User: What shape does this take?
Amino acid sequence: MIPGARLVLFGRQGAGKGTQCVRLSRHYVVPHISTGDILRSAVREGTPLGQKAAEYMRAGDLLPDDIIVGIIDERLERDDTRTRGFVLDGFPRTVRQAEALLKVTSPRGIDLCINLDVPREIVLRRLAGRRVCTDCGTNYSLEEPPKYNATCDVCGGDVVLRDDDTEEAINRRLDLYELETAPLIALFEEWGLLAEVDGTGSLDDVTDRLVQEIDRRREL
Ligand code: AMP
Assistant: This one.
């Protein structure tokens, strides 16, 4: 039995990673660490990092590895990740980031890297309808909107279309996934850390599959 849960969830943009990470972080009582959320809040606050990040994000480009690794390194230094673990959302996205992650988390490393697998045609459809809370980052869709118009069910924040959910940026992010992130599948397999989970179907079905897979590995 591995104590705690030190998890990475990765996959195509729009595979539902964000929502599933929130659910996993509640289930295993570990912090949800999303590089996208950290960057969006830096953009909102207008910090130097945010000013730099905004251009990359709007275009759907990846930020340079050293900036992102610095952010994660700093975040994983905080006490809340040491006791029970964490679930990483949107990091790593490149081979260099994955290698850096192993160094930063050494000697305990990562327990499991889960590829949440959703085909490109399906994520394109999902992304077109995606809406997000500007305050807490909760995701909604046209099929599952907030109860009251554009007001977040969780925190009352504004629910909007993401700046980077334009057709051009979405296609750019999906191309970058194939080029930069898909090679992580073979790498994590080689490191003995890979699990593949089908990300299609209802949110509850996907969460059940993820929890089953994580618990199965934790019991090995
Ligand atoms: P996300 O919310 O995970 O879709 O991230 C939104 C945007 O933030 C991405 O399109 C990138 O511009 C940037 N970003 C987030 N995580 C990373 C990362 N690990 N490496 C490089 N750029 C990132």
